[in-house]
Write a structure and sequence with these properties.
This protein has 16 helices and twelve strands. It is of the alpha+beta class and about 400 residues long. The protein has two domains: about 70 residues, SH3 type barrels; about 325 residues, Neutral Protease, domain 2. The longest helix has 21 residues.
Length: about 400
């Protein structure tokens, strides 16, 4: 029975992918209709991106019909996106910038739009000056700032995202949006707070107040998966870095650093996001000096809490699989920050880092990314991982002097 289904579905998909330009197609799956372009297909799923940037993962067995609607796929214009948002979020205002459309309460929407645009430019510049290959986003980016926690939680439910009480915002790979709720501290804190402070005991693992604070959602085997960042790992009990962290994920997935289809290793994705929380990494001219380039919370944890548990081979562990991010959350995030910072501050390693990212993001998203493959890709770019770890630990030891 499965062979017959694949014969019916795969042949039309190959026709829809034919030609130099992506085609606009219509897919009937179960009782729903989807219109967009095919971005990946295997024996289990057909991945379709619509004109507004949303990715739907359709089980092959559910696809009934597929036909070409237009010989050329065109992304939605900013005007079309604005109209869609106006209908979807009545009662809210939409403010635009070069790269963003931001939905937010009327009296704060312009400030939020300015903030998101600023983060975009700083993150893009970080990668560009280090020689990373940067592309132009296919769609204008969208951020939604809800006026209340209750509205945010309702949106999370519609988006199939768990919303623990401490969740303040997330970036969704499926919708390509950042969503958060309006907090009077956000705009002031994000521009005034230093790059991190030593975490207090009230946010250490196992203590009251410790919970997921930031998240990225991904499509995995047809389900929405939330990759959480512990509140202590993010910014103690403050909310200053919510926008920066989530916008960094969003920008990276839209300028060619990360692929929305590939399952980017957590150490790479979270390492970059935590490195870019430091204002000196995003804007060195306005924030000179070493201290402004450091994520002091991650550095403090690495040098004090993680020190006694650290073992040779930990870098291979976080590169090869996700296990350490589940069992030693703060250790893993601190190690990811430290390794990414080491590579970002070392010109020779930065060139290799850019190569590594190209290798990771060029992988076939329909294929399993095994631990062996992950290690092989890393060592293709950086050489022997054991030697790199020794060099990395010497670099971190010098920071303690």
């Amino acid at each position: 029975m499965m062979i017959a289904i694949l014969t019916i579905v795969i042949t039309p998909v190959s026709e829809c992918l034919a030609g130099s330009q992506p085609r606009l197609i219509e897919v009937s799956a179960d009782s729903a209709q989807y219109v967009g372009r095919v971005i990946a297909v295997d024996s289990d799923f057909c991945h379709l991106m619509d004109r507004f940037g949303r990715i739907d993962q359709l089980p092959v067995a559910s696809v009934k019909t597929m036909k070409v609607v237009s010989e050329q796929f065109r992304t939605a214009t900013p005007g079309e996106m604005r109209e869609k948002l106006r209908r979807e979020f009545p009662g809210y205002e939409t403010s635009g910038s070069t790269h963003y459309l931001v939905v937010a309460p009327r009296d704060r929407v312009a400030d939020y739009a300015t903030l998101f645009e600023g983060v975009f430019r700083q993150v893009e510049q970080f990668f560009r000056v280090r020689g990373f290959r940067v592309t132009t986003p296919d769609n204008i980016l969208v951020a939604v700032v809800f006026g209340t926690r209750e509205e945010f939680e309702e949106y999370c439910r519609r988006d199939d995202v768990a919303s623990p009480s401490s969740l303040r915002g997330y970036y969704s790979l499926r919708s390509n949006r950042v969503a958060l709720f309006d907090d009077s501290r956000l705009l002031s804190a994000v521009t005034e707070k230093p790059a991190g402070q030593t975490p207090g005991p009230d946010v250490l693992p196992g203590m009251p107040g410790t919970s997921d604070n930031l998240a990225v959602t991904a499509l995995l085997n047809g389900k929405s998966v939330q990759l959480g960042l512990n509140q202590a790992a993010a910014m103690s009990s403050e909310t200053a870095n919510v926008i920066i962290h989530e916008a960094t994920h969003q920008v990276g997935h839209n300028i060619g650093i990360h692929s929305r289809m590939n399952r980017t290793p957590s150490w790479l994705m979270e390492g970059l996001a935590t490195v870019l929380e430091a204002p000196g990494m995003r804007d060195k001219s306005s924030h000179p000096g070493l201290e402004s380039r450091l994520n002091s919370e991650r550095l403090h944890w690495f040098q004090t809490q993680y020190e006694s548990r650290r073992r040779l081979g930990d870098i291979a562990r976080i590169v090869a699989d996700e296990e350490m991010f589940s069992t030693q959350v703060l250790d893993a995030y601190s190690a990811a920050w430290a390794l990414t910072y080491f590579m970002s501050e070392n010109p020779a390693r930065t060139t290799q880092f850019a190569r590594y990212i190209r290798i990771v993001e060029s992988r076939d998203p329909t294929k399993l990314y095994s631990p062996e493959d992950r290690l092989r890709d890393f060592q293709t770019a950086f050489g022997d991982i054991a030697r790199l770890e020794v060099e990395f630990l010497r670099f971190m030891d010098r920071m303690s002097e």
